[in-house]
């Protein structure tokens, strides 16, 4: 007799409701393929109800004092902290990453929630007194209305928390569409948000696939769309939502390079590279997936391979695990196919993780650390975002040659240089055409009071998530020019010019 698995709910107008859809998808544990729950592909009517609830709630929420909004997020961050272990366990079960990495996922989102609690100073406008005769000019930052977010599978806690807290804290209402692959931790975070005091209709959640994405892009009452995910989908979302007159920000694919100079601290550099390349099974948009060894640093390759080979591949719930499974068997098939293509194109497979076997988790979607040398920019393993624990190693004779190589790649999410030379680091940061730069920091994701600033092929839209830029994204500036007269002031003559002096 089959066991009934729970169904993931929708959140519409403050109520967690069962979808009336006929289309469902299983949520599976990547380490065991056990079915954990089922998620609905919500109907058009359910999306309409979510947007309608958000639209109605906006009328009162936009007038809610900033202090009231801030206190909700102060409560929310407390609830997240109190439930950190539970959130991480849920995340690991459905996404596969290790428990410590899952806690990190939640924590990086929590930092944005904390920042949302201090949103008051970020919404301050500008004021100039007496810009002309008794004329003052000032600006107001006002919310724009119903906003929406579409989030990926690889950070099911952090990225939703990038989106709805800042949108709601600035006075907007929100419709969230989590990844259909692992929405359970997202929904638990949503439950905590409701418990923290977010009023009904201010936050709504729908689930689904391409039809739901298109519905969000097309809906006339949604004013802004935030997206994180693959380049093909992000490009589609940007074009479709922009054509519908919406503000859009899309954070997309990447091919992040680390450039290693011969003078770098060897021990610290190798450890940083192994963690940033293979952690989270390479399923990070900021993972280092291309390594450029400059000059004598190319001699470090054997030691790098030895350190990578020692990483422990296992289920994320097991102690001592370094690399968990990929999200689905289909993802595993894609990654192993690209590895084989790299071999066929002539790259040297220094470390092959395809034959890894994990005792007790034979059905898991596991691949061990995989390392290619002799990679050239024309190879598929270099051109494509593999999204697995696969590192492509290239070589350069000089720093300038390395910079040219990185700048020739169409993506611009993040890059890093490892060196002890301040001059080399300065030259790198000035001449590299990538939005986020690390100096002896392999994954240069900024803290929330700075903005995430990926560039070029990794980003569409001018403004990034969180930080000051996202306040601009979720608000519109209104400029007011005012002049007040004393009651007993004499009326002047008619002035038909635009000069206010």
Automatic annotation (TrEMBL):
<feature type="domain" description="Aldehyde dehydrogenase">
    <location>
        <begin position="16"/>
        <end position="480"/>
    </location>
</feature>
<keyword id="KW-0560">Oxidoreductase</keyword>
<comment type="similarity">
    <text>Belongs to the aldehyde dehydrogenase family.</text>
</comment>
<dbReference type="InterPro" id="IPR016163">
    <property type="entry name" value="Ald_DH_C"/>
</dbReference>
<protein>
    <recommendedName>
        <fullName>methylmalonate-semialdehyde dehydrogenase (CoA acylating)</fullName>
        <ecNumber>1.2.1.27</ecNumber>
    </recommendedName>
</protein>
<keyword id="KW-0520">NAD</keyword>
<dbReference type="InterPro" id="IPR010061">
    <property type="entry name" value="MeMal-semiAld_DH"/>
</dbReference>
<dbReference type="InterPro" id="IPR016161">
    <property type="entry name" value="Ald_DH/histidinol_DH"/>
</dbReference>
<dbReference type="InterPro" id="IPR016162">
    <property type="entry name" value="Ald_DH_N"/>
</dbReference>
<dbReference type="InterPro" id="IPR016160">
    <property type="entry name" value="Ald_DH_CS_CYS"/>
</dbReference>
<dbReference type="Pfam" id="PF00171">
    <property type="entry name" value="Aldedh"/>
</dbReference>
<dbReference type="InterPro" id="IPR015590">
    <property type="entry name" value="Aldehyde_DH_dom"/>
</dbReference>
């Amino acid at each position: 007799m089959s066991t009934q698995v729970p169904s993931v709910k929708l959140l519409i107008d403050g109520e967690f409701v069962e979808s009336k859809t006929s289309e469902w998808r299983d949520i599976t544990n990547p380490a065991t393929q056990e079915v954990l729950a089922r998620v609905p592909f919500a109907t058009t009517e359910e999306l309409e109800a979510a947007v309608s609830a958000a639209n109605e709630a906006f009328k009162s929420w936009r007038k809610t004092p900033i202090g009231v909004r801030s206190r909700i997020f102060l409560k929310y961050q407390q609830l997240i902290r109190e439930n950190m272990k539970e959130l991480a366990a849920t995340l690991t079960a459905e996404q596969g990453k290790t428990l410590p990495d899952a806690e990190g996922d939640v924590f990086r989102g929590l930092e944005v929630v904390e920042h949302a609690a201090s949103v008051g100073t970020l919404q301050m406008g500008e004021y100039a007194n007496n810009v002309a005769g008794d004329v003052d000019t000032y600006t107001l930052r006002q919310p724009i209305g119903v906003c929406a977010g579409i989030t990926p599978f690889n950070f099911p806690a952090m990225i939703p928390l990038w989106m709805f807290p800042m949108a709601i804290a600035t006075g907007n209402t929100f419709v969230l569409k989590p990844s259909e692959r692992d929405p359970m931790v997202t929904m638990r975070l949503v439950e905590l948000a409701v418990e923290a005091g977010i009023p009904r209709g201010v936050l709504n959640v729908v689930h689904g696939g391409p039809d739901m994405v298109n519905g969000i892009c097309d809906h006339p009452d949604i004013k802004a769309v935030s997206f994180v995910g693959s380049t093909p989908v992000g490009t589609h979302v940007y074009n479709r939502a922009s054509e519908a007159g919406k503000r859009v920000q899309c954070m997309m694919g990447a091919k992040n390079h680390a450039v290693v100079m011969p003078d770098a601290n060897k021990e610290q550099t190798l450890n940083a590279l192994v963690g940033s390349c293979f952690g989270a099974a390479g399923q990070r948009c900021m993972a280092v997936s291309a390594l450029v060894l400059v000059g004598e640093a190319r001699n470090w390759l054997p030691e790098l391979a030895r350190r990578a080979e020692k990483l422990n591949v296992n289920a994320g719930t097991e102690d001592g695990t370094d690399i968990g499974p990929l999200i689905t068997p289909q993802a595993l098939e894609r990654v192993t196919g690209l590895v084989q293509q790299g071999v066929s194109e002539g790259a040297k497979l220094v470390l092959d993780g395809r034959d890894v076997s994990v005792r007790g988790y034979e059905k898991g979607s596991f691949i061990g650390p995989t390392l290619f040398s002799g990679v050239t920019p024309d190879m598929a393993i270099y051109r494509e975002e593999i999204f697995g624990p696969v590192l492509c190693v290239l070589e350069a004779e000089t720093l300038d040659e390395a910079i040219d190589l990185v700048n020739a790649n169409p993506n611009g999410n993040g890059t890093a240089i490892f060196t002890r030379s301040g001059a080399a680091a300065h030259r790198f940061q000035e001449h590299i055409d990538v939005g986020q730069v690390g100096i002896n920091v392999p994954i240069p994701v900024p803290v929330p009071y700075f903005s995430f600033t990926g560039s070029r092929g990794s980003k569409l839209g001018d403004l990034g998530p969180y930080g000051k830029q996202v306040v601009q994204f979720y608000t519109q500036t209104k400029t007011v020019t005012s002049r007040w007269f004393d009651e007993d002031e004499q009326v002047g003559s008619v002035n038909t010019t635009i000069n206010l002096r």
